[in-house]
Every structure is written in structure tokens, then in C-alpha cells.
User: Which sequence fits this backbone?
């Protein structure tokens, strides 16, 4: 009897443990995994608080994976390869298009409609939104107004003027006239985007029959690409030597007073100056990336500014609705504006209503730099997302990610500037590699 009673007790306990284990397993399944390369402590803290509030209201947990910028691509690729992608990642629109075309990401048109996302920020394929825009990095260059004024120099508007200012201010090793990266990195890739936008250089052409051609090495477009690489080679002469070209290094070059002009994607550089060298902050001012006057004289459009649209890609998992619920909660929360203001002027919100709101404009860091606010306001209409640069009007380039994430533009600059290779040869080999990548991508997507 005693043994039988003990057996019954153990059986009941074991059953209870199994039930609790199952319940715990179900609860664990209600955990949205979010992955981002945004590791700024202020923005991370605000994001985590919004996520905690979401969990308190819904019972859905959010696991935040904040991965370093350089580590992010490989980490995400590994998770996808083993069949365990995060539910939601923060990336650019080009990545959203790619993952959607590969059948890995779900359409988010309903959520974009609910949020009132402007059409100019939406990345659609086959009529469906492929990701949810959250913020815009407005690409500009930054210059030291005190140095230009002391030397009697105007803010450069053309490539030739830029080179003249860089030459005049260059006084190594204490001061360099420019600050551009020259290695196979995303920072250097952005330099190539600036050059493309300001000399009307295109990677590819989409035909009416739906086919795509790589035209980087074709005709006058190739000649403009050669001009662009030669311009980068000349500008690099006035930049700090031996650069690894990380975003951190570029910010440090400027904040320590070693660079007179620096390109950057967004205003994190300005925030770095505010944090690390307050004396330079009032003299750190934005400027448009100069254009090639010869291209403008030839009637080519050199008026656009690269926009980097960031947002949320939702991978197809068993938590699609829960993930969309969290994305909507975050983007409509009271804390979203605070999150954007964690790096003032760098995280421009997806909604212009938020950008123009009293909450935003009355923030001390915004209010004390009306020049930066007005610069973004005045030039925003000229912004063009990079995934639209080669695409026909009203369409998205589904292959932008292939050369952008591979940093092929940055690699061309590195090969010419550091490696001393012939620009024409580099362009031809890069174009052939892109043709190979497009063919491979078309096999993957059935395109």
C-alpha cells in the first residue's frame, strides 16, 4: 500500500511537472526576438523600456539582440542559414526587398497603411510593402566653419571647390582637409553612393521587358565612374592615412580636430563632437556633398541626396502577428520620439508629424541647433533612397543589396586609392562580378 501510494504521488508530481513544462514551453514561444546593430547606450535603454512596457501590457516577451555593426551581417546570415532567424530585424529597405523576394520575410502592407507611412518611404514589390520604415539617416557632409572662415573659404559646392578647400586646409599631421574612408566597408560604400549621386553614375538599367542590365562599365556611364574613382583618389590625398575607415574612426578624426570636412551617414558625427569636444560643436555644420560641375553643365541630374531608410523586416515565423503587434506598439508609443532624440538629428522619425511636433522641436539639443534642423528641412525633398537610385520611377531595385552589402563601391575605391589599380579595369571586373551575383540571385528567387 505504502509503495502504491508513493507511486501515485510520484506520478502526480511528474504529471504536474510535465504540464508546467508544457505551459512554460508555450510561454517561451511567445517571445519575439529582435536584432539590431544600434548599440548606442541611450537608444538601447529607451528601446528596452518600451519593450518592457509592451510585455507588461500583452504578456509577449521581447528578447533584444543588440549586435555590433561590423558583426551584424554575419550573425544574421548564420541565424538564417540554420533556420532560426530572429522574428524582427532592423535594417535598410534594400534588405527588406531581398528577404521578401527570397520568401523569408512577410508582407507588412497592412501595418504600413495603419501607420500612415508616406509612399516615398515605402519599399514595395508586387504591390506589397516589404518592410516597415522607422527612421531616416539623412546623408550629408560636416565641415568646420571656423577653419573655412579663418581661411576666407566658402563652403564648397562642386568637386573642384571641395578639392581646393581640402588642399588649402591640409596641414598634416595636425589637420587634414578631408576625411574619407578608402577600404571595403559600408562607410566607404557611402562615399561611392555620394559620388554616384553627384555625377549621375548608375550600376544597372531596368528595361521595359523586365530584364536588367549592368551598365557600370558601359559607354558614358563608365567614363563618369572613372571620373568618380579619380576624384576619390585625389580627395584621399588630403585624408588621414592608414584609415581602417570604421564609422568610429571617422567620428574620432573629426571630434579630435584632425579633419576639416568629413562625410557621414546621418548626424551621429555631430553627436560625437557634442559628447567629446564641446568647443567644436558650434562650428560643426552640415553641407551637401559637392557635385561634379561638368556633369551639371552637361544637363545631368546631380541634385539628389542619398537617403538611408531604416526599419523593421519581419521574418516569417510562427509569431508573425505578435511581431507586427510589437512593431506597431514601438512606432506609436510615447517613447518613440524620445528614442529618435537619443541621437539628435541622426534618427529622423518616419513621420514628419513627429519631426515637426513640439516634443521634438522643443528638445534642448534640437532647439540649440536650428541651423541643422533647417538644413534637413530644406534639403529633405532632394533625398532619394538608395534602393530607388537605379530603379524605374515608382519601382524598387531588387538587386541593390547585392552590391551595397558586399561593399563593392567601397572595394573599387580601395583598389584604386590604396592598391593603385587602373580605374577602368576595376570597373570592368566589378561589373562582371555584379552580373554574376544578379544571375545567382535570379536563380534563388525564380526571377
Assistant:
Amino acid at each position: 500500500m505504502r509503495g502504491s501510494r508513493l507511486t501515485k504521488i510520484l506520478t502526480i508530481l511528474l504529471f504536474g511537472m510535465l504540464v508546467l513544462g508544457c505551459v512554460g514551453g508555450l510561454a517561451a514561444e511567445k517571445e519575439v526576438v529582435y536584432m539590431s546593430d544600434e548599440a548606442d547606450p541611450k537608444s538601447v535603454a529607451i528601446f528596452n523600456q518600451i519593450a518592457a512596457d509592451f510585455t507588461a501590457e500583452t504578456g509577449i516577451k521581447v528578447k533584444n539582440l543588440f549586435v555590433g555593426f561590423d558583426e551584424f551581417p554575419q550573425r544574421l546570415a548564420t541565424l538564417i542559414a540554420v533556420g532560426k532567424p530572429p522574428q524582427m530585424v532592423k535594417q535598410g529597405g534594400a534588405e527588406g526587398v531581398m528577404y521578401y523576394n527570397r520568401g523569408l520575410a512577410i508582407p507588412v502592407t497592412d501595418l504600413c497603411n495603419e501607420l500612415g507611412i508616406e509612399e516615398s518611404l515605402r519599399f514595395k514589390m508586387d504591390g506589397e510593402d516589404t518592410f516597415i520604415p522607422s527612421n531616416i539617416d539623412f546623408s550629408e557632409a560636416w565641415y568646420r566653419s571656423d577653419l573655412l572662415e579663418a581661411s576666407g573659404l566658402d563652403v564648397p559646392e562642386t568637386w573642384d571647390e571641395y578639392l581646393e578647400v581640402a588642399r588649402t586646409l591640409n596641414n598634416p599631421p595636425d589637420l587634414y582637409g578631408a576625411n574619407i574612408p578608402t577600404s571595403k566597408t559600408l562607410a566607404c560604400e557611402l562615399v561611392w553612393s555620394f559620388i554616384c549621386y553627384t555625377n549621375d553614375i548608375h550600376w544597372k538599367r531596368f528595361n521595359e521587358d523586365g530584364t536588367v542590365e549592368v551598365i557600370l562599365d558601359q559607354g558614358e556611364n563608365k567614363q563618369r565612374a572613372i571620373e568618380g574613382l579619380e576624384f576619390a583618389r585625389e580627395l584621399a590625398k588630403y585624408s588621414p592615412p592608414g584609415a581602417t575607415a570604421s564609422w568610429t574612426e571617422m567620428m574620432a578624426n573629426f571630434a579630435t580636430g584632425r579633419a576639416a570636412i568629413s562625410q557621414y551617414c546621418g548626424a551621429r558625427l555631430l553627436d560625437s563632437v557634442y559628447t567629446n569636444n564641446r568647443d567644436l560643436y558650434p562650428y560643426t555644420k552640415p553641407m551637401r556633398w559637392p557635385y561634379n560641375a561638368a556633369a551639371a553643365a552637361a544637363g545631368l541630374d546631380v541634385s539628389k541626396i542619398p537617403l538611408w531608410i531604416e526599419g523593421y523586416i519581419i521574418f516569417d515565423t510562427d509569431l508573425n502577428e505578435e511581431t507586427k503587434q510589437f512593431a506597431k506598439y514601438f512606432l506609436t508609443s510615447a517613447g518613440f520620439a524620445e528614442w529618435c532624440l537619443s541621437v539628435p538629428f541622426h534618427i529622423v522619425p518616419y513621420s514628419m508629424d513627429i519631426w515637426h511636433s513640439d516634443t521634438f522641436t522643443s528638445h534642448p539639443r534640437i532647439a540649440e541647433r536650428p541651423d541643422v534642423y533647417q538644413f534637413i528641412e530644406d534639403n529633405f525633398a532632394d533625398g532619394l533612397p538608395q534602393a530607388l537610385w537605379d530603379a524605374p520611377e515608382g519601382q524598387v531595385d531588387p538587386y541593390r543589396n547585392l552590391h551595397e552589402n558586399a561593399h563593392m563601391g567601397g572595394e573599387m575605391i580601395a583598389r584604386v586609392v590604396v592598391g593603385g589599380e587602373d580605374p577602368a579595369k576595376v570597373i570592368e571586373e566589378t561589373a562582371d562580378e555584379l552580373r554574376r551575383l544578379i544571375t545567382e540571385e535570379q536563380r534563388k528567387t525564380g526571377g
About this structure: The longest helix spans residues 2-29. The two ends are 72 Å apart (CA to CA). Confidence is low (pLDDT under 50) at residues 1-28. DSSP finds 21 helices and 13 strands in the chain.
